[in-house]
Amino acid sequence: MRFSPLVEQLMDAFRVLPGVGPKTAQRMAMHLLERERPGGQRLAEVILQAIEEVGYCQRCRTLTEAEVCMLCESPRRDDSLLCVVESPADQLAIEEAGGFKGRYFVLHGHLSPLDGVGPESIGLDLLEARVAEGLIEEVVLATNPTIEGEATAHYIASLLSEHGVKLSRLAYGVPMGGELEYVDGGTLSRAFNGRLPFASE
Amino acid sequence: MRFSPLVEQLMDAFRVLPGVGPKTAQRMAMHLLERERPGGQRLAEVILQAIEEVGYCQRCRTLTEAEVCMLCESPRRDDSLLCVVESPADQLAIEEAGGFKGRYFVLHGHLSPLDGVGPESIGLDLLEARVAEGLIEEVVLATNPTIEGEATAHYIASLLSEHGVKLSRLAYGVPMGGELEYVDGGTLSRAFNGRLPFASE
Ligand SMILES: [Zn+2]
Ligand SMILES: [Zn+2]
């Protein structure tokens, strides 16, 4: 037995969400249709609105429906410190760990020439222009401690080397091969405090 | 730090799904906005369409966008056997276990007088009319093996007692206090084969 075509389509559609297999997708579809139609309606409407309206902050490229995000607009952040991360989730993880009071720049990925992801795809032209403004004294390269994240950090370091900014990297303490998003706050906070000068070669 | 209002709303909206806490909701929102906008658009559209169009089969009350569901319309099922379940998920679990070739009736819940869920809320008027048609010889009361499921089965048994149908219950083998939806197919299949006459008192 299968459910009706539309109910089956609903189950299939839930599979787009991370970590959702066939059984979970079925449970979600049933729960929504049996008990949560108003909540489901709201979820669908918010998804459509977010897809339509949420873009990148013009200054830091984090996700926002505004032209410039709240954090870029805040007068209470240190303009001399810029932290470069691969994703908004990494940015959130660092914020929640506490301690860092500078600004951010979000790459939305890392360099991956084989997939056609070059410097401009991850906003490095915007990053260089930002550093060229002259306010930034230190750039913390907080890309993921993976091969691709390290390669991206090295590329950025070489790109920014002529601008006379200090470059640093999170202290190890963050596990090699892991993803920042899943590192606990304590580890992340300590790694931040122990950050090291970035050695380009 | 919080994300922008719309991104926060998206995270909150995902919490309507079963088993989705704040961290999972955040991961879903990020995944969708960063990597799966077409899939998210499709999910939202299918949710809206399903909420609008999916109702109850006029004959068995399972979820369907048609007036009468595929299983009720199938000429290959035994009209003399009717299995009463609490939910479409339970119906699916029994179908996937295999072995039962009769028809179904879906209550969408169980009697719960304190919550205002009476016999008509779970379609018992329709069920009685169906049995009164005279084709059904046996009704399998496959409500959940919980206090409420048992009470509902007893109520139905007494409602149908004057119609001269045989009443049966799933053999134990289904764990007490559990929910049919999560019982493995083998257990469920054996419980079906070993079903017992329903003792009303
Ligand atoms: Zn910003
Ligand atoms: Zn039906």
TrEMBL record, chains A, B:
Zinc finger (C4-type): 57-72
Protein's name according to its UniProt entry: Recombination protein RecR
Pfam families: RecR_C (PF21175), RecR_HhH (PF21176), RecR_ZnF (PF02132), Toprim_4 (PF13662)
SMART domains given in the database record: TOPRIM
Transmembrane segments: none
PANTHER family: RECOMBINATION PROTEIN RECR (PTHR30446)
N-terminal signal peptide: none
Similarity comment: family membership: Belongs to the RecR family.
Species this chain originates from: Vreelandella neptunia
Keywords: DNA damage, DNA recombination, DNA repair, Metal-binding, Zinc, Zinc-finger
Function: May play a role in DNA repair. It seems to be involved in an RecBC-independent recombinational process of DNA repair. It may act with RecF and RecO.
Domain Toprim: 80-175
Domain of life of the source: Bacteria
